[in-house]
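tool_call predict_complex ligand=zinc ion
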Amino acid sequence: MRRVVTLRCRDCGREYPPTKRAVCDTCFAPVDVVYDWAQVPRRTTIEARDRTFWRYFELLPIEDPRHILDLRAGFTPLVHCQKLGTQLGLRQLYVKNDAVNPTFSFKDRPGGVGVSKAVEFGDPAVGCASTGNLAAAVGAYAVKANLPCYVFAPAQLEYSKIGQILAYGARLIAVKGTYDDANRLAVLASEELGWNIVNVTSRPFYVEGSKTLAFEICEQLGWTFPDRLFIPLGSGALLCAIHRGLTQLQQTGLVPGTLPKLNGVEAEGCAPIADAFASGDEQVRPVEHPATLASSIAIGDPGDARYVLKYVRGTGGLVGAVTDEEIVEAIKLLARTEGIYTEPAGAVPIALLRRLAHERQIDPDERVVCCVTGNGLKTPELVKPEPTAILEVPPTFEALSLITR
Ligand SMILES: *Cc1c(COP(=O)(O)O)cnc(C)c1O
Ligand SMILES: [Zn+2]
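tool_result ok
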């Protein structure tokens, strides 16, 4: 029996057969995958399975398990942060550490599902439009699938990310422009060349992977909802997927209770959604030239902005923006309190939480989860050494004893 029952328009509810399609013909809104709830297993069945995100198979849009591409991604640690929590005055602070996925960001989830779906569709090539991390993930899963991979990314990507993408053998199409320019070119490639650009061609399927982050957090909290989540915002797809995942846990009865407050976080140099939230608008004004060192989330025209605003407001959360200085401080704070090293996009949740905690806007007993979405080794140049941090010595004990006295 088919797992995916239909694709349903997020706005008007019109339904479509589960084939390749990104939006509704009537209102151009995204379409979402609808599952057969009867196939969703019990908690104990899920708990006994492999510790990868594929343990939620019945809520993922792959029909035939033979199409699964498995790099052992997901089921990443949910870390109870006692030291950071004490500094911020929070007793129940957790970090969901997705920096330790096989390709070093949460993009293993949508990338893995997206390329698996391309295999199921029998497509000749895969690709993506990316700010860097999705390209690495799609590149790695394309290796598993034996498919050629073409990634569209802004030309001024950090070299640490380019090296990883090229190592997997992907072809990098370095677009001289912003992410939004790269994305527009990828749409044309999808239409004209028949490549499965996973976040364009089969977007409704691809985005499903990200909701496993929500499934894991709740399962790791003993099948309960936290009180509040902090989530970085690029296109907004991750926050929307987390909202969808939480709703599905509630609707299938796997987790009882009310949804957590969803807090979205942008960088100030690219904060279209935070601006709209602050002014009470439902639409965003795109940022033409994003200017932030958080390149993974530097998306000036976020496709899912309208829904982010809806879900954030609907759960009583907020959208905030943090400065590049706050981001670098947060990278160091997380590394020095919890031993977790993240890139700027993964640090924005920590930066906003820190500010709100200092303003006493978070109750000390709230269960708070920060989604740390990417690895610090992706951006190694950001933490500048303090004058006393590096002690250069000639190779003698005498020299060592002089400087350590
Ligand atoms: C892609 C990405 C995000 C944001 O994802 P969206 O789904 O585009 O909102 C956040 N953090 C990291 C590290 C990313 O790579
Ligand atoms: Zn519609």
